[in-house]
Amino acid sequence: MRVLAISMLLMTVGATDCTFESSVPLGAPSAETFDPGLLGRWDCVDSNDPSARGVLVVHAFNDREYVVFVEEDAELYRAFSSRVDQSRFLSVQKLAFEPPGEYSIVGYELEPASLKFRLVELGPKEAKPTTPSALAEFARRGLASGSLYNEGSFACKRAGGESAP
After folding, report:
1. Which residues have C-beta within 8 Å of that of residue 148, sequence separation ≥ 6?
2. Beta bridge partners of 69
3. Domain boundary assignment for the chain
4. How far apart are CA 100 and CA 107, in angstroms?
5. What angle do CA 6, 82, 9 make, to 5 degrees?
6. What pTM was computed for the model?
7. With the C-alpha atoms ordered 131, 132, 137, 142, is the resulting torsion angle positive or negative?
8. Rounded CA gap, 111 and 161, in Å?
9. Nearest alpha-carbon partner for 43 in 145, 162, 132
10. 53: which of 14, 21, 119, 134 is 20 to 30 A away, CA to CA?
11. Nearest-CA neighbor of 126 among 144, 141, 107, 114?
């Protein structure tokens, strides 16, 4: 399934063979990797389709996890940050009444007033990682080779001139 940036990255919008969802997160929720800069309201746009826009509202659920609200769809997601070397990721899971679903793994870059999300991609001949450590090693190899992400990205700006927390 293709998953679009937390507004768009988090909503399943279409299928591709390479973008994947994981049965395991990249790591465990941790206060050490919690990124308060993600908190707030974000206006996002798809880099490949400027008409694809969305608003995300990111709240702290506790000192380790976020709750993300996608305004356009009134959808809620649980997310938490992880690092692989110096790169930052979110493990994202839709909140629903069904049993917990798979995780979307999203790379992100954060500046004081901007945020960029990128989709992690699984090569056509690669097996899905089945443990957090195997997923981290997959990410490390993909980062080193430049093959971790697909072509799409989503650029977000703080909504309404809001400042970083």
Report:
1. 107, 120, 121, 139, 142
2. 57, 76
3. 2-161
4. 21
5. 15
6. 0.84
7. positive
8. 14
9. 162
10. 21
11. 141
d(CA 30, CA 52): 32
**Looking at the predicted structure, is the pLDDT value of residue 19 above 60?**
no
Q: Using the structure block, give the residue that is written with the tokens 């937390």.
A: 6
Taking a C-beta distance cutoff of 8 angstroms, is the pair 78, 95 a contact?
A: yes
Answer whether 58's CB lies under 8 Å from 40's CB: yes
Encoding tokens for residue 74? 């009134």
Which SS3 state, helix, strand or coil, does residue 109 take?
Answer: strand
CA 100 – CA 165 distance, rounded (Å): 30
What pLDDT is attached to residue 84? 94
Pairwise CA distance, residues 56 & 33, whole Å: 20
**Distance separating alpha carbons of residues 90 and 104, to the nearest angstrom:** 8
What are the φ and ψ backbone dihedral angles of 17, each rounded to 5 degrees?
Answer: -80, -20
Provide mean pLDDT across the span 40-57: 88
- Looking at residue 12, its amino acid is T
- Residue 143 corresponds to which tokens in the numbers above? 């980062």
Better pLDDT: 89 or 1: 89
